[in-house]
Amino acid sequence: MRIVIALGGNALLRRGEPLTAENQRENVRIACQQIARVHPGNQLVIAHGNGPQVGLLALQGAAYDASHPYPLDVLGAQTEGMIGYMIEQELGNLLPAEVPLATLLTQVEVDAKDPAFQHPSKPIGPVYAKEEAERLAAEKGWRIAPDGDKYRRVVASPRPRRIFEIRPVKWLLEKDTVVICAGGGGIPTLYDASGRRLSGVEAVIDKDLCASLLARELDADLLVIATDVDAAYLDWGRPNQRAIAAAHPEELEGLGFAAGSMGPKVQAACEFARATGRPAVIGSLADIEAIVAGQAGTRVSTAHAGLYCR
Q1: Scanning 7, 51, 121, 281, which has the fewest C-beta atoms within 10 Å of its C-beta?
Q2: Does the active-site annotation cover 23?
């Protein structure tokens, strides 16, 4: 099978954990131990988030020269190299030596008129207590929003429209390369009014929506959206919460999942399943073998009607 795995940025630097290279390396190692289990007999494409990482780089850049901060598209490109390098190395330590791996900088087109630019919603960087978040927002001109019981900086998250490097990804897959691409949802870019000149834009694309587009364009057999919970849930956080085992896209989309957490994952899974007729699964990376075998996670498919809970 050709499998696209969308790996959450918060799985690489966990919520509330110090944003150190050592912590990220250890989390990447744990993630790769799971991913390596499903490599035999399959082609793998790995996309990943970068919310904590791109926010950290933005802070570092502002500390150097607050009046001329590096733009988010450039920082996004940096995270693709940084995270891709770690995944390549840790996965390469686990797979047979003859398996090729490649990280590809991936530019993704967005629409300058996307309403997301007027309504920032993508959390990046570390979490803060409310008072500190409000102080930083006033100092740096940030938008902030609640994230659980803490607060984070939020930036624009426009929808991905086109992946410019899709042909090189396909060429690499023809050689059975494990490809790491579309990191952080890809590097956000758009054309000027002439339609000829491409440049970066201040945004962070949702990695799940980009992974869904990537999986569709690669004609993938399965999209795995790996997160820190084992499934999407009904009545999450309540005594009667129930894990959703399988659902038709129409049923799942109608449940109104939160935009800042499970919402984009559900949307991405539904878009892939509806467009291809193939399944997308939302679940824990620790369950990836069972997910690929069809035995874990929330399986989104047009093959059956309704919604089923465990």
Answers
A1: 121
A2: no
